[in-house]
């Protein structure tokens, strides 16, 4: 088991230099929230390290740790951007999440919940087991203790409700 730096040392570093580090990161990121997150990550990183003597120049030490985290953060964002760009190329135009799209999604989810609530219990269970849990129809029949034909009828009923919902939208 590795010894960790005493939390009291980190607490002292935090109380004496966290505001300075947040401001230092704020100048580099130009984002207060990101600077606050990186400040927090810096002190978390220090808590995870093995015990070491307190640095003689704490601000330089904190800046070095924070700079490395900032570089990791930039790399991660570049990877995310590359993945989004690759996704856009393979899936057509990339649809950004907008407040309007979020509201549409919430309305659609509300409609789906109402639709599921309107189904008979076994039909709802069969549909959820098929569409959400990905069970095969014979597995659903075994789990619910009903025949395969009843499972097919329940799922067909649920799909009919879904199509009616889509037509109404």
From TrEMBL:
Q: What keywords are annotated for this sequence in UniProt?
A: Sigma factor, Transcription, Transcription regulation
Where is the signal peptide, in residue numbers?
A: none
Q: Does the keyword Transcription regulation apply?
A: yes
Q: Which GO terms describe its biological process?
A: DNA-templated transcription initiation
| Record flagged with keyword Transcription regulation | yes
> Which part of the chain is the RNA polymerase sigma factor 70 region 4 type domain?
110-162
Its Gene Ontology molecular function terms? DNA binding; sigma factor activity
Q: Which residues form the RNA polymerase sigma-70 region domain?
A: 13-77
Q: Which InterPro entries match?
A: RNA_pol_sigma-70-like, RNA_pol_sigma-70_dom, RNA_pol_sigma70_r2, RNA_pol_sigma70_r4_t2, RNA_pol_sigma_r2, RNA_pol_sigma_r3/r4-like, WH-like_DNA-bd_sf
Family statement drawn from the similarity comment of this UniProt entry = Belongs to the sigma-70 factor family. ECF subfamily.
Q: What is this protein called?
A: Sigma-70 family RNA polymerase sigma factor
- Annotated source species: Stakelama tenebrarum
């Amino acid at each position: 088991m590795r010894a960790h730096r005493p939390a009291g040392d980190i607490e002292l570093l935090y109380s004496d230099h966290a505001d300075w580090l947040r401001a230092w990161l704020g100048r580099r990121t130009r984002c207060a929230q990101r600077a606050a997150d990186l400040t927090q990550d810096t002190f978390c990183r220090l808590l995870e390290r093995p015990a070491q003597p307190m640095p003689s120049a704490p601000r330089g030490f904190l800046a070095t740790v924070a700079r490395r985290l900032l570089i990791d953060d930039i790399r991660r964002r570049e990877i995310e951007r590359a993945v989004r760009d690759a996704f856009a190329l393979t899936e057509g135009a990339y649809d950004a999440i907008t407040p309007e799209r979020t509201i549409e999604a919430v309305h659609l989810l509300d409609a789906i919940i109402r639709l599921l609530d309107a189904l008979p219990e076994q039909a709802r269970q069969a549909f959820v087991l098929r569409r959400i849990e990905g069970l095969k129809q014979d597995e659903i029949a075994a789990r619910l203790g009903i025949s395969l034909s009843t499972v097919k009828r329940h799922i067909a009923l649920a799909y009919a409700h879904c199509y009616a919902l889509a037509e109404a939208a």
